[in-house]
Amino acid sequence: MGAPLARIVRIKWERPSEGRLKLNVNTAVDGTLGHVGVGGIVRDWNSITITLFAKSFAFSHVPTRRKFLLCEKLSYGVEISLYW
């Protein structure tokens, strides 16, 4: 028996309240090769893009990669919140 098929789930973006911004972040991890990617977008209540970011890097230790990604997401979100 092979690996299970991937399931595609479509999620509709929901706008923030008027006067607010929304940060959406996503990551991809290839645990076999040790590659990590993180990207995100900040949009306002009119769906206008304020900023985008993307970063890729490599780690050799999987738990360290996961902790780093979480810290990076949180610090970037706080930075954006403080800036606006």
Task: Please name the defining characteristics of this protein.
flat, 26% helix, RNase H type-1 domain-containing protein
Characterise this structure.
- With 84 residues, the chain is α+β, with helices and mostly antiparallel strands.
- It has one domain (21-83).
- It has one helix at 62-83; strands at residues 21-30, 35-44, 49-58.
- It has a three-stranded antiparallel beta sheet with strand order 1-2-3, with helices on one face.
- The protein is flat, with a radius of gyration of 16 Å.
- The model has no long low-confidence stretch (mean pLDDT 75).
Residue windows where pLDDT falls under 50 for at least 5 positions: none
Note the main sheet. Answer: 3 strands, antiparallel
Strand order of the largest sheet: 1-2-3
Tell me the series of helices and strands, N- to C-terminal: EEEH
Protein name: RNase H type-1 domain-containing protein
Organism: Parasponia andersonii (Sponia andersonii)
Question: What is this structure, in a nutshell?
Answer:
The chain has one helix at 62-83, and strands at 21-30, 35-44, 49-58.
Describe the secondary-structure layout.
Blueprint: E1 21-30, E2 35-44, E3 49-58, H1 62-83
Antiparallel strand pairs: 1-2, 2-3
